[in-house]
Amino acid sequence: MHVTENAPLAPLTTLRLGGPARRLVTARTDAEVIAAVQAADGAGEPLLVIGGGSNLVIGDAGFEGTVLRIATTGFRLAGTALELAAGEVWAEAVARTVEAGLAGIEFLAGIPGSAGATPVQNVGAYGQEVAQTITEVVAYDRRERETVTLPAADCAFSYRQSRFKADPERYVVLRVRFALEAADGACSPIQYAEVAKTLGVSAGERVPLRTAFETVLALRAGKGMVLDPADHDTWSAGSFFTNPLLTPDQYQAFQRCLAERELAAPAWPAPDGQTKTSAAWLIDKAGFGKGYGSGPATLSTKHTLALTNRGRATTEDLLSLAREIRDGVHAAFGVRLVNEPVMVGVEL
């Protein structure tokens, strides 16, 4: 494995923000990953595990401990069963499954980051979540000091949540296994209204797999959600806030607030009697439009959910903007936005 002292972390994140790590270890095999984790745990030092760095906000002071960058590789397809090493580039893996004619993760095209991060966040977009196709997650259990295989039913998947995210100090994902679908060249049934409208079909219909894949890539690119080093709108952590889940009482209060303003917000039924609404809608209607901000950190000019580094920002610049937006939405609608990226050494 490769070890660097006082290593810059900003270049390893899609936001390009954050101070240095006292020690950076790059592991290219599962054995190296486990050895690095055991060494840090044995020394009692803080450990931060990163993959593609697409869902991280690292403080300007950096990380006083060991940062483990997982750079393992492995793409194994047997029929419709897919196994990915944690370090595989997610966007490339999705593209390969489409080339193989397999449906199940095609609406997750273009999402930056590594495969190992997908079960942690239960990554989802355009009506798909990885929880729908993950069968098993292989991980190193730091508490039991052994490698374990967790079936999907034991991963506690929910909206942008999982067992791994709920207990971040316990598991280090090594491999992720999926069950995909051979649908005679067709995509999964379309669930997302924007995709269906763009394709000119109804929800629940299927279109050619390649068409669905390319449509999602185009939609993401139009929102600055496909990485492009030359485009500062893509210097982000993707969607910075999750879509709020409101209890019945919270939703009633929200509805009263909307009625006073003569507004109607998007709403979708969610588990446990909750209602999901749109964070992007809330941000826009609270007065934070595309491109909002005059400093080195602003909202994307293409999408109100992305907070971006315009090239000279610090992490504190970004957090200052995030707090302004969070507090402004709460003042306007009584809804508290929650950050989606993982905060390291900072809090919102």
UniProtKB/TrEMBL annotation:
Q: Where in the cell is it found?
A: Cytoplasm
Q: What is this protein called?
A: UDP-N-acetylenolpyruvoylglucosamine reductase
Q: Which InterPro entries does the UniProt entry name for this protein?
A: FAD-bd_PCMH, FAD-bd_PCMH-like_sf, FAD-bd_PCMH_sub1, FAD-bd_PCMH_sub2, MurB, MurB_C, MurB_C_sf, Oxid_FAD_bind_N
Pathway stated in the Swiss-Prot or TrEMBL entry: Cell wall biogenesis; peptidoglycan biosynthesis
- Where is the organism placed in the taxonomic lineage, from the top? Bacteria, Bacillati, Actinomycetota, Actinomycetes, Kitasatosporales
Cite the GO molecular-function annotations of the record: FAD binding; UDP-N-acetylmuramate dehydrogenase activity
Species this chain originates from: Kitasatospora kifunensis (Streptomyces kifunensis)
Question: EC number(s)?
Answer: 1.3.1.98
List of catalytic residues: 160, 239 (proton donor), 340
Q: Which UniProt keywords apply?
A: Cell cycle, Cell division, Cell shape, Cell wall biogenesis/degradation, Cytoplasm, FAD, Flavoprotein, NADP, Oxidoreductase, Peptidoglycan synthesis
Instruction: Identify the Pfam families for this entry.
Output: FAD_binding_4 (PF01565), MurB_C (PF02873)
Job of this protein: Cell wall formation.
